[in-house]
Design goal:
Distance between the termini: 49 Å
Oligomer: single chain
Helix content: 25-40%
Strand order of the largest sheet: 2-1-3-4
Number of domains: 2
Strand content: 15-25%
Bound molecules: guanosine-5'-triphosphate, magnesium ion
Shape: flat
Order of helices and strands: EEHHEHEHHEHE
Number of helices: 6
Structural class: alpha/beta
């Protein structure tokens, strides 16, 4: 039974991977995951485990968010037939929502605290803007490059966009 450890940080996109406590070889699939989102490579885990470690029995411990663990669980369950034994354990860490709540609690404490400069309307508005899910996207390209076509296909509907020629188009999503 090979013991696999996968630690994935969705904020920095860093992955730490070991099998029986040993980091993979340089040319290993598992050593080339830096900067890649978990969802880009989770599907390929079973195949590479089998190919690179030439074993039938694995125990995988995943250290990361619940959302990523569930994706891994789904992939493992789908590929169970290729292994004589494959077990999955989790070490769940806080996800984005938990962290957002913590940041909000800290901000609310600051608003009740003694430092008046941190209670200005400007700071309150900036914090609310950062928290808001709305953000601005600028689509910039030369005339008839396909800006309107791109925006329409991203939105999945045909907006009647004014001529977007060389100008900055601000799209609120
Ligand atoms: N072949 C091809 N044609 C495209 C593509 N994207 C857009 N077009 C065509 O290119 C033409 C211009 O596309 P638009 O989306 O209107 O370009 P635009 O940048 O909004 O143009 P302006 O607002 O007039 O500057 C249209 O006839 C589109 O159908 C593409 O990816 N491939
Ligand atoms: Mg246009």
């Amino acid at each position: 039974m090979k013991e696999v450890f996968i630690k994935y940080n969705p904020f920095t996109l860093d992955t730490y991977f070991t099998v029986d406590g040993i980091v993979p070889k340089e040319n290993s699939f598992f050593n080339n995951l830096k900067g890649k989102r978990f969802q880009e490579w989770v599907e390929d885990i079973p195949k590479h485990l089998k190919e690179e470690y030439d074993a039938e029995e694995f125990e995988i411990t995943f250290h990361g968010t619940l959302m990523d663990f569930e994706d891994l669980e789904e992939v493992i369950n789908r590929n169970r037939g290729d292994f004589s034994k494959i077990e999955l354990k989790s070490e769940i860490v806080k996800d984005v929502k938990d962290r957002e709540k913590e940041i909000e609690a800290i901000f609310n404490d600051i608003q009740k605290g003694p430092i008046e400069e941190l209670k200005s309307l400007d700071i309150l508005q900036t914090f609310n803007k950062a928290k808001n899910r709305e953000f601005e996207i600028a689509v910039v390209a030369t005339m008839s490059a396909g800006k309107s076509t791109l925006i329409n296909s991203l939105l999945g509907k045909n907006l009647c966009l004014p001529r977007t020629k060389h100008v900055l188009l601000l799209l609120f999503v």
